[in-house]
Amino acid sequence: MAEPKRVLLAGCADLPRGDGDEDVLLPALAEAGCKAEWIVWDDPSAPISDADLVILRATWDYAGRRDEFLQWCEAVPMLRNPASVARWNTDKAYLAELSAARLATVPTEVVPPGRLPEWPAGEFVVKPSVGAGSRGARRFAADDVDGACEHLAELHADGHTALVQPYQADVDAHGETACVFIAGRYSHAFVKGPMLSGAGMDDSGLFVAEKVHAEQPAEDVLAFAEQAMDTATSVLSLRRDDLLYARIDVVRGVDGAPMLLELELTEPSLGLSLAGDAAAIRMAEAVRELLDG
């Protein structure tokens, strides 16, 4: 009997076994002939060199030390998604690049230290370009430019480039639709409620608590998510199946058309626990195909 493949799921010190979303994945990986265990990404004793594959899952403390995190990613022999994808995707300035590639995105102004933006006419959001779990993101009323300037100055003082975006009111009514792709193919979707409307932090302190539920996306939302996958992989010069996983967060604009809020390719929650065994099996099979390829 062949030895099982060793797969490591990378978490962080505050969530060394993730947030529970992968609990359904571990037995599916075992069924696929993989021995899976969790590691903390910056633990020097983690058995990286012995692994057949390392999967970024809950490395949600990287934002304050992104350079260190990316150096670690580049030192891992077999990482998914790859280190080059993590470097591109952990700075949300990628939204401007996707917009330039003619993908409908939430209008985004990138504001480096020393600059002021053109403030949107209505409600708007100011957030760091490098961040996870909505930390550092704040929503402002149209007439609260003073408060926004203060928050922007704090972000800049901490060395952050900021993003300024008009707030998408449709989120309050319908949330964000997260379309999950595994090995380039659509798997399942779930809806996340608004996170900038007074929601508190999770107990870990790493992300804003979310209300989520599984949902079949509307046809136009799914078609848009497919387009987003094609655009992103074209920009990255990758095939779709080079991405073990992807999460496309979609909202509707004022005209009702779908547009991209975020494209999560590094360490997103995939909603596996919401989608049940079928999604976990798809993920495990994709891992096995990758290892056998």
TrEMBL record:
Source organism, top-level taxon: Bacteria
InterPro entries: DcsG_Biosynth_Enzyme
Entry keyword set: Ligase
GO molecular function: ligase activity
Identification of the protein by name: RimK family alpha-L-glutamate ligase
Organism: Haloechinothrix salitolerans
